């Protein structure tokens, strides 16, 4: 499997990439700093073997993303099997605005750069890679209403800024994948009203192999799936709001992606997989 990974220097993307490398995949990482794995004893053997390929670049710069596409293509005769988009910034706290990510349109702009630089050879239906995009629960008004009661204040205040960005990002996903959009219009400071006129933006429904993963509140806990005992599943999955799902560890989201989602792609293609304990 040939993978192009954006946002995989840490968190869900990193844990998923590590699992995919262990399965024999080749992963091209787009990294703002190629020194991100200098002291990583897990990734270093894959770098030495050539299956982990590091490309210096910023997803906020379209030219850098285009170079990332080209480097990933060069890893396997011009084809790419999977694109993993897990970009998310390191939040800082503001007393009146909650957690903020800089820039405020990080996810949306990065995704727009990704989809508008897809190489021509990969845009035909038969050659398109699969896209997995990490989002979140609770980003629309309707989804927020389905959150567990105790999470509503936290999401409404602390995560308000990052979720404005993710809402706009999901609007772009819906367009490219041909999904119906019934939610509110994203903030035009994040996604300008003219965004559908961007050069090289995929047409409505042009990307045919897209899945969004919407995790519950993320934790840094261990992967429960790796130590599963008995018949109870380590986490719950649903194509729709779980309602009573509070948390999920980043490790378990990565486990689902690498160990479950890819082997059951037909079940989830064109859907949003909600995951929580």
Task: Provide a compact summary of the structure.
This protein is of the alpha/beta class. Helix content is 32%, strand content 18%.
Walk me through what this model shows.
This protein has nine helices and twelve strands. The protein has 277 residues and is α/β, with parallel strands linked by helices. The chain has a single domain, classed as NAD(P)-binding Rossmann-like Domain (Rossmann fold), CATH 3.40.50. The protein has an eight-stranded mixed β-sheet, sandwiched between helices. Helix 2 links the parallel strand 2 and strand 3 (52-56). Helix 4 runs parallel beside helix 7 (160-177).
Strand content: 15-25%
- CATH 4th-level superfamily: NAD(P)-binding Rossmann-like Domain
Largest sheet: 8 strands, mixed
Main sheet: which strands, in order across? 3-2-1-4-7-8-12-10
Structural class: alpha/beta
* Total beta strands: 12
Number of helices: 9
The unreliable regions are: none
CATH class category label: Alpha Beta
Determine the CATH topology: Rossmann fold
Query: Number of folding domains?
Result: 1
CATH architecture: 3-Layer(aba) Sandwich
Q: Alpha-carbon distance between the termini?
A: 29 Å
Could you state the order of secondary-structure elements as H and E? EHEHEHEEEHEHHHEEEEHHE
Q: What is the arithmetic mean of pLDDT?
A: 94
Gross morphology: globular
Question: Taking Cα atoms only, what radius of gyration do you get, to the nearest Å?
Answer: 18 Å
Overall helicity: 25-40%
């Amino acid at each position: 499997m040939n993978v192009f990974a954006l946002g995989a220097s840490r968190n869900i993307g990193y844990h998923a990439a590590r699992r995919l490398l262990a399965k024999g995949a080749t992963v091209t990482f787009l990294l703002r700093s190629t020194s991100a794995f200098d002291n990583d004893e897990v990734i270093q053997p894959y770098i030495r073997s050539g299956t982990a390929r590091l490309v210096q670049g910023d997803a906020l710069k379209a030219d850098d993303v285009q170079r990332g596409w080209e480097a990933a293509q060069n890893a396997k005769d011009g084809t790419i099997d999977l694109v993993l988009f897990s970009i998310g910034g390191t939040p800082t706290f503001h007393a009146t605005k909650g957690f903020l990510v800089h820039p405020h349109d990080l996810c949306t702009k990065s995704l727009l750069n990704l989809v508008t630089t897809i190489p021509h050879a990969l845009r035909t239906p038969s050659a398109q890679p699969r896209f997995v995009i990490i989002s979140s629960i609770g980003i629309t008004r309707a989804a927020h209403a389905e959150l567990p009661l105790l999470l509503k204040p936290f999401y409404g205040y602390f995560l308000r800024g990052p979720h404005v960005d993710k809402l706009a990002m999901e609007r772009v996903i819906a367009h490219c994948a041909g999904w119906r959009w019934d939610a509110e219009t994203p903030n035009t400071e994040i996604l300008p009203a003219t965004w559908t006129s961007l050069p090289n933006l995929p047409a409505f429904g042009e990307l045919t192999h897209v899945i969004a993963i919407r995790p519950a509140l993320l934790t840094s806990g261990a992967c429960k799936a790796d130590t599963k005992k008995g018949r109870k599943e380590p986490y719950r999955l649903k194509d729709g709001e779980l309602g009573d799902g509070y948390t999920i560890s980043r490790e378990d989201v990565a486990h689902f992606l690498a160990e479950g989602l890819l082997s059951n792609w037909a079940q989830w293609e064109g859907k949003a997989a909600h995951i929580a304990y």
